[in-house]
Amino acid sequence: MTRAVYRFVDHTINHAPEGGYTFEIFCVTHECGEESGPQGEQNDAQDWALRHTGRTGHNLFRRVVTDHARVTRADQEEHERPAATTDGTA
After folding, report:
1. What was the pLDDT predicted at 84?
2. Rounded to whole angstroms, how far apart are CA atoms 73 and 61?
3. Residues forming a β-bridge with 77
4. DSSP states of 24-89 as a string?
5. In the Cβ-directed half-sphere of 78, how many Cα atoms lie within 13 Å?
6. What's the pLDDT at 90?
7. Cα separation of 58 and 26, whole Å?
8. What digits encode the pLDDT tens for the residues 6-27?
9. Mean pLDDT of all residues belonging to the chain
10. What does the alpha-carbon distance between residue 52 and residue 29 come to, in Å, rounded to a whole number?
11. Is there a contact between 34 and 24 (Cβ–Cβ < 8 Å)?
């Protein structure tokens, strides 16, 4: 019989800047269902909503912001930091 050994370690999760953000707006007025589609800039999604309101009078939207995240094991963070030199600089 094989035995498993589990080691529980702390992790952190942070925004991965190289992934950027995606902004989307969905019209939820009267089950309209129209949407801005994924936009790289918040203003582009907001402009779509403003134009949609102007055309239809719809004024209720759901906004979604998506980012990319990186999970790093806590002990990995320590190993990836530059070692300090004898004069105290990294």
Report:
1. 46
2. 38
3. none
4. EEEE-GGG---B---BSSHHHHHHHHHHHHHHH----EEEEEEE-EEEEEHHHHHHHSPPP-TTS-
5. 5
6. 47
7. 11
8. 888 999 999 999 999 999 999 9
9. 88
10. 11
11. no
**Structure token pair of residue 12:** 């952190």
Does 88 score more than 90 pLDDT? Answer: no
Backbone angles phi, psi at 54, to 5 degrees: -60, -40
Residue that has been written with the tokens 């912001």 in this structure: 65
Tokens read off for 25: 């707006």
In this structure, what token pair is assigned to residue 22? 């995606």
Instruction: State the pTM of this model.
Output: 0.68
Alpha-carbon gap, residue 63 to 27, rounded angstroms: 9
Q: Is the pLDDT of residue 77 over 80?
A: no
Q: 14-45 b/e with 16+ CB inside 10 Å = b?
A: eeeeeeeebbbbbbeeeeeebbbeebeeeeeb
